[in-house]
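ok trying again, last paste got cut off:
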Amino acid sequence: MIQIGSLAQAAPVVSPADTCGAVYEIFRSERDLLAVPVVADGVPRGLVNRQHLLVEMAGQFGRPLFERKPITVLMDAQPLIVEADISLDTLNQVLAADRPAALTEGFIITRRGRYEGLGTALSVLQANMAEARKTADQLETARFQAEAAVRSKSLFLANMSHELRTPLNAIIGFTDVVCQEQLGPIRPAKYGEYIEDVNASGKHLLNVINAILDMSKIEAGRLDLDEDYHDPHELIVMVVRIMRGMAERASVLVRETAGAGLPLVRMDMQLYRQMLMNLLSNAIKFSDPGSEVRVEAEVLADGRFATRVVDEGCGIAPGDLARVMEPFGQGSVSRVRRQAGTGLGLPLVKALAEAHGGALDLDSLPGLGTTVTVTLPAERVASADAMPNLIA
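nice, full thing came through this time. structure:
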């Protein structure tokens, strides 16, 4: 577990007797310095924040007024001080609950009460990212080691969910605060670009982990269906409306051609929506600007209920069809390889369909688009005689 001592950064240290003018010159010479600790005989006495000092010194009479006075008049006499041997999780809790301002003002790290170094928002973010990468690497290693024991692998992934999500949620939460500049402007401004990248990477990794955990729950037999009869047309219209923003950004037209009048179908509403959203996301992602994605639904001749997502995208080579249906499998087409993803979308939809007793069929050719069909068993489709009672 990461301890706070690893976050301590070397920084110029001043004594309580040093003048404001001397500290001002330190900030002038080191433009990326966030704060300067005030230390006497190895014991921290306070913390001088760059922005506060520069604001006070910038006025017409500010510098003559302060430059010869001891720095104690402008320092924060009660900064956040943490011991080097506390854990990163504990620091995250303190920053989030008690001292969020320390993210922009900095904090002091001590070892047995003696000054050790300066802590900053950037060092906290870097440590959280390192912790997340370490845990993700452990998860990946465990997946390969447990290839022959799918159930053991799935249980392991489920048990790791807290350890993975805790640092990621801290990364996403703190970077959201910093990106929105809730506690003050980002200085230097270039850090804003880096923090936005960290935020986007954290959210992407959290989505990957959620997909992996969904797969593990299914494979471990721990998925419970919350079943009832629902109107599939209403659910399709809802999902198409949700996904329209993503489609517009990709200049892809999404429309549903199922039409009203479909029978009610017994299913888990949330999981059916999740299947549709995964399929539509894939279809939009691999479609060219100006093309169309359609959602169709019908009752087949044998009574099964079928939902199709049809696109005009890059398609999948015949040799890749089996691979893309395996967890973490992806096609070899260059357009497919360039898209961000884990290869869990189609396998997850297949697993959710099978949890309903159904199936997933994939029909695709390079350059001619892809059709994915999810079928649910006939016994899940309400009969014409039962429909009035179910609606009532």
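cool. The chain has three domains: 4-119, 124-219, 227-380. The chain has 15 helices and twelve strands.
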